[in-house]
Amino acid sequence: MKKYLISPELNWYRANFHCHTKHSDGALTPEQVKEAYKNHGYSIVAYTDHDVLLDHSDLNDEGFLALTSSEYAVNQAQPGFPEIFDTGISPWVRKKCMHLNIFAKDPHNTFMPATDINQNWILRDRYPDTKCDGFIREYTTDNINEMIRRCNEAGFLVQLNHPYWSLNEREDYINLKGLWGLEILNYATELETGSEYCPYIYDDMTRNGMYSLVCTMGDDNHNHAGFRESFGGSTFIGAKELKYEQIIEAMENGNIYCSSGRDNPPQFKALYVEDNMIKIDCTPVTNININGYGRADRHITAPEGETITHAEFPLRESDVYFRVSLRDEYGNNAHTHTYFVKNYIEK
């Protein structure tokens, strides 16, 4: 019997989970962002303006959905590197920070948990009537976990963003509690740093107990230089219809995968387990890989100059869990989140 993990019976909607507009530090209006992303094949945009939570439901139509969301920031009080490395540059570039996207389960929920209006100039100067709980943010594990807890309790899914750009080290992310997702590609900061593609951090976090964590990709587009930093990081969401409650339910249930590439990113057509075999159907790619609890040791590579669209691997109890990745001839990558073997294996 087939057990679908990525079902062809669902519609798979392309989403950008990380976006900035004129409501914070972006160059475009939400309407301009909608037009650009719809024209590029996207159905969903999460408007994650910095520490601003706005309801953009007025943008919704039969082919487009705006997610009510925000990007929260918490900054280290002091520079993070020894003074021996001080070269007179701004202390900000040496400070750790942590950025968290929050996604509202209710599209009309604009209450901002874990927020003090006086800590953020955008709220203080532009949106002084914002309702929040007065929580003071600090860059400590306990404080950030309290931020996440308050957001979860208030009806939000929480995602950790761009850990490389934020100077996050293992000690900063490994003890976080209550996260829904990790952004394994931030397209804008990947262009800026060359180091923001981080599935290895996702594996580290899942190996250390964050078993329900999903992985996503997003653009973090600001569009001050046109669309250079747009359309490169996508998350695909499987649902029957493009309705807010169905999209949130799909996100909570893990009916998602992520993919890189501005045009025609690699995509899963189906992922299922049948007769204790993991079976994958996809768009033409050069590599299909299985990663488990330990070192990745199974892959299929297309012959030189050719592509593949199907692969099968034995479902092994020793893997504990697995995730699947694709790579196309241009170096673009698609990833599922982790699935537990015990939920699919037949004895």
Provide tags for this entry.
347 residues, alpha+beta, four-stranded antiparallel beta sheet, 7 helices
Largest pleated sheet: 14 strands, mixed
How many helical elements?
Answer: 7
- Specify Rg, calculated over alpha carbons: 20 Å
Shape: globular
- Order of SSEs: EEHEEEHHEHEHHEEHEEEEEEEEE
Low-confidence stretches: none
Provide the structure class: alpha+beta
What features would you describe in this structure?
The protein is of the alpha+beta class. The chain is 17% helix and 30% strand. The chain has seven helices and 18 strands. The strands form two sheets. Strands 2, 3, 4, 5, 6, 7, 8, 9, 10, 13, 14, 16, 17 and 18 form a 14-stranded mixed β-sheet that branches. Strands 1-11-12-15 form a four-stranded antiparallel β-sheet, with no helix packed on it. The model has no long low-confidence stretch (mean pLDDT 95).
Summed up, what is this model?
By secondary structure, this protein is of the alpha+beta class. It is built from seven helices and 18 strands.
SSE inventory with pairings:
Layout: E1 3-6, E2 11-16, H1 30-39, E3 44-47, E4 65-75, E5 97-104, H2 121-126, H3 141-153, E6 156-160, H4 170-173, E7 181-186, H5 187-193, H6 199-207, E8 214-218, E9 233-239, H7 244-253, E10 256-260, E11 268-274, E12 277-285, E13 287-291, E14 298-301, E15 308-314, E16 321-327, E17 333-335, E18 339-340
Parallel strand pairs: 2-3, 3-4, 6-7, 7-8
Antiparallel strand pairs: 1-11, 2-9, 4-5, 5-6, 9-10, 10-17, 11-12, 12-15, 13-14, 13-16, 16-17, 16-18
